[in-house]
Amino acid sequence: MLLPSQCTPKKMKKHGHRVGAWGPVLVLWLAGMGVAYAQDAATLKRPTHLRAAPGDSAASVAELAANASVTRTSQRQGAWVQVRSESGATGWVHMFDIGTPARENTAAQALRNLGNQASSGSSVSAATATATVGIRGLGEGDVSRSPVGGHRASHAEPLNHADRLRASADSARAFARTAALQSRTVEPLPVPALPPSIPASSTEAVAAALPQAGVAGDAAMARLLQSVESMTDVQEADLGRQMAALLLQGKPLDPTPELQRYVNLLGRWLSLQSSRPELPWTFVVVDESDFNAYSAPGGHVFVTRGLVDRCTDEAELAGILAHEIAHVAQRHHLHAMRTALRLGTPAGLSALVRQVHTLGVGAEAEHAADREAVTLAARAGLDPYGLVSALVQLNALGDSDLQFADAHPQSRLRLDHLEQAMARRFDPLVGTKASVTVDARLEMAGIK
């Protein structure tokens, strides 16, 4: 998914992104969004004060009514974002006061229609996988062009190269010391009530009641059918590696060593705060201009170069990495795969990956990953509002009409869920300190 305040053609050109076969799609998207790229419009959820500086104690510049229109700037400090009111006054509001109602998104519909035309005649409906993207779990990548039949993916060299980039726990701790990041004790967030439209684990409950299907000749799938808990970490990592090879098939890694190193160090530091720090965590920057993040069991996390470039600051990148770490740590992919198998998905890893890609890991799992991501960022000494900031940008784009809306909760619902879970408990942790950009961290950590 493209972010309105960050994805400009100029920035793509600056970093030398290869648009490739989806160039016409991206051009159409940019042209269709028009005004949204020039200004990041939003509305307010509730009456609030426009503050002269970040913080509840700052002087009030103006009173803003519920549903008032504002324009976000790129400035954020902790939980506070700078906006401009319709009258032209500039000031700060709390991030949770910003919202965007569901609306028609003609550019997204045009993109979907173009994707449908491109995929006509194909047996796979996921041909637009690399064109409409978001922060989700397993599923993105050239899975639509992977072989079907349960064979191990060939062309494993990109994955082997990614393994060589893996950061150790000690090097991640050294990075944290250099970056002045200190771990903190942070309790898990409470679980707010899910909306009535999201019954907890209903699909998995239905699948559990079905008789078990056979998975001929595939030991990993057979183990998964028995139970997710029956898989050891080693078995999960082996299955995840096969899946990661499928997700990387045909995708080049970003050629910038210092960027790969930085993302591995940051991701590894976050993973050390998780419930499964011992996994062979591997973080990969894929050389694509999309805004995209995805993961596979066993510790493989992928982000695109476009995502890194469009993150306003390090906290946004950390929040997205932490979301994917949470999916892996809580075995969301495996649970989704087991459900798909019990519902009768054709045997074979490629087919299963496509199935999970289409259905997603479930709204309940996405909300759980959001809550865990905020907690992991806070435990790592990072700004826990980074993920919230990224979701606010997705919300401003109007992702309710995007390709994966059925498989992935709308960002406005995720923001409402996080607001209920977080309340204002993390505000004292972040205060009103200015955020650190990715480029600044690369310089400060001596990686560049």
- Give the number of DSSP strands: 10
Average pLDDT works out at 75
Largest sheet: 5 strands, antiparallel
Query: What's the N-to-C terminus distance?
Result: 28 Å
Strand order of the largest sheet: 6-5-4-1-7
Secondary-structure-based class equals alpha+beta
Written as H for each helix and E for each strand, in order along the chain, the element string is HHHEEEEEEEHHHHHHHEEEHHHHHHHHH
Radius of gyration: 21 Å
Number of helices: 19
- Oligomeric state of shown chains: single chain
Shape: globular
Note down, in words, how this protein is organized:
By secondary structure, the chain is α+β, with helices and mostly antiparallel strands. The chain has a domain of 312 residues. Helix content is 43%, strand content 11%. It has 19 helices and ten strands. The strands form three sheets. Strands 6-5-4-1-7 form a five-stranded antiparallel beta sheet. A hairpin with a 4-residue loop joins strand 5 and strand 6. Helix 16 runs antiparallel to helix 17. It starts with 8 loop residues before the first helix and ends with a helix. The N terminus is likely disordered.
